[in-house]
Amino acid sequence: MKLFISICRVLFLASGVLAGAVCYGQASDSTANDLCFWIGDTGPAGPVVSGPHQYPFICTTVENGLGQPRVDNQAGVGNAVFPEIKGVPDYNAEPVGYSAQCGLATRVEYFYYSTNSRKFVKLPAPTEVPPDVAIIKPDGKPMKFVVRLERGTINRFIYSVAMLAPFAESLARPDTLDNSAWNRRLVYKFQGGVGMGRWQGGFGLGKHDALYYEALERGYAVAYSTGNRTGTHYNLTLAQETAFMVKGHFVAVYGQPEYTVGIGGSGGAVQQYVLGQNSHQIIDAAIAQMSYPDMVTQTIYVADCELLERYFDEEYSRNPASRWGRWTERSLIEGMAANNLVYKMPWSLSPHAPSPGSSECVNGWRGQVPALFNPRWTYPQYQTALDLYRYPPQLAASTQWTYWNDLGNIYPQDEQGIAPNSWDNVGVQYGLRALLSGAIDQQEFLEINACVGGWKAPQDMAIGSYPWRFDADPSIVDPWDKFNMNLSASCRSGQPAARTAGSIQAMRAAYASGQVFLGNLTIPVIDVRWYLDPVLDLHHALGSFSARARITNFLGHADNQLIWVVACSHLDVAHGKKKCDYNPSGEALDLVAQWLHGKAANGVRVNPVDKPPTATDRCYAADGAILYAGAKVWNGILDDKPAGSCTKEFPVYATARIVAGDSMRGDVFKCALQSIDDAIARGVYGGVRFDSRQLAWLAKIFPTGVCDYQKPDQGKPAEVLLGSRHTPAPAPGDQETARK
């Protein structure tokens, strides 16, 4: 926690956010604050606190339609910059120099919202607005929907600031702009995806991206950066630093906003939860769409998926009459949704899997483990770009491509430069709650746990068969990446497959650097999501409630978090398709305005219980009608109360770790262990009895003991434990488990 505070203090002072004054004149006349810059200048490259810059780091200014980056060295460091023929880089020519910082000259463009195309269209000149321009009334007075977009680079990423600009203005200096249509409020637009870093990212120039329609039509300014897109990277310290710098520039050029609201989905929601926890200077409220609490604890259950899917597929191959040939049966162990109807994409087909049918593990998470865990595998597009921009081949070959290595300034590395990861499944009793409920028997429980295995250490991983090695024989398909699993051919009758012990150092580094959402969040949060569990979408409803469970565990309440779930107008279960018409995010933005107005300026925090009467949990019909609202609509998910109205309408599923006995928080990297004798004595197995042979097998599967979820995460540093209200997991079989 001390590290969080020191990061915030350094960034706060470095960014000039405290000043709150607009810089006048060109940046060359204002050297006191390097975030005060304007057209033609290049923004600061950083870093401030995130540690040394990554190398290689691929510039994507050309791919984003912004031209080549500025040359900043002749030493061959970074992207090669080429001579141009009619504005097009000649990639066959010798470079004119190199760009390590990926810097761009700041520029300003104008866009209008077209009623014909229903999208933003670039204007050749700000005064030449076509007749199909939309007319909006952000302050009650009609005005043309024209937007000024400032773009450039900050902290090596491409940033932008969008603001209504329907009136004539001069771009000579910031103080000559006409910002009278701005409502003095700011939206910071975060975005999702899963990226392994080492590139500048993709810039989204659409009405859900940098030109965020819902905010602009209401008069908000919109700040945006490819460094706050988790499809670029998942280093939340770097994301925090980038957001500080972008907001600092905004304040320097446009002035201090009344308040700042974060908006974004998936990884964009993760950033709001984590950055909102770690800092009080970026956002004053969050609209977290399709949320998860954080990314690094998400890997815990994601990496369980293929271990279990591989076992189930092989069981089906051994015996087509096996119960695991029915996809819905797999939910008993995996926790997440599955159905017997969906048709999978061909690449994800296992030669042993039943068809039709699928699970969220396959439909949502297949392919993630190599990208997260394997330092020797990466997306082929990286190599193509490294070759194009003349990076030395030996550099690309020596780069370790994992999430943990991407955060090399945070996680420890061995002598080979490989960062061990935090994933651990020692003592995890997969399917425990299914055993307790009678859904599976002792033999099934023991066999699953004997054969599930674990993942090899990243140092021992290699590139296996098709589709992970593209020149491999496509008839030898390994969709699970079992080449990198700990397996045992005699797991059913002899030697159980080995489990994986994660790195305690990596776990502690994740906590100490603020990558884990602890629940220490006091700003207003409206958690918005569409109900997609039936189509096996990876954005499952559980994420919202996992975040709530952590907030409640840390603060003792979650009065500042609202959960809104929306029905989709059409869910095609057989083909995994969805159509969701109503988006309540604009409604959420209006509610946040009521919640924050006059209370969040200049860093004054809002009392979470001092909220509008309409600030309640709710669920919506597909047309936007509120089905149910109030404090009790989600009862029965995180408590023992009868199921609330929304709970019945939108059932929440679980994960393999929750089925194994963990709580809905899903925040245990490494469980404390208890002996099997102690587990039996404490009633972990309820009324289930094992005979002597089964007890001997259980002891062989778990030679060091089984998980005791009544105790805290063994990877959590002591100072973090002292700063939170630790609530142990519920006893097996209680009602905190997610319900179907």
Q: How would you characterize the overall build of this protein?
A:
This protein is of the alpha/beta class and about 750 residues long. It has 21 helices and 26 strands. The strands form eight sheets. It has a twelve-stranded mixed beta sheet, with helices on both faces. The chain has a two-stranded antiparallel ribbon with strand order 1-4. A two-stranded antiparallel ribbon has the order 2-3. α13 (about 440-450) packs parallel to α20 (about 690-700). The model is unreliable at about 1-20, about 25-30 and about 725-740 (pLDDT under 50).
Q: Topology, pairings included?
A:
Blueprint: H1 2-15, E1 79-81, E2 84-85, E3 88-89, E4 97-99, E5 107-114, E6 119-122, E7 135-136, E8 143-144, E9 146-154, E10 157-164, E11 186-191, H2 213-216, E12 221-229, H3 236-254, E13 260-265, H4 267-278, E14 285-289, H5 298-318, H6 327-334, E15 338-339, E16 358-359, H7 360-365, H8 368-373, H9 380-388, H10 393-398, H11 403-406, H12 432-437, H13 442-451, E17 454-455, E18 485-486, H14 504-512, E19 525-530, H15 542-555, E20 561-566, E21 570-572, E22 577-579, H16 585-596, E23 618-620, E24 626-629, H17 645-649, H18 656-659, E25 672-674, H19 676-681, H20 692-701, E26 706-708, H21 718-722
Parallel strand pairs: 11-12, 11-13, 13-14, 14-19, 19-20, 20-23
Antiparallel strand pairs: 1-4, 2-3, 5-6, 5-9, 7-8, 9-10, 10-12, 15-16, 17-18, 21-22, 23-24, 25-26
Helix pairs in contact: 1-3, 13-20
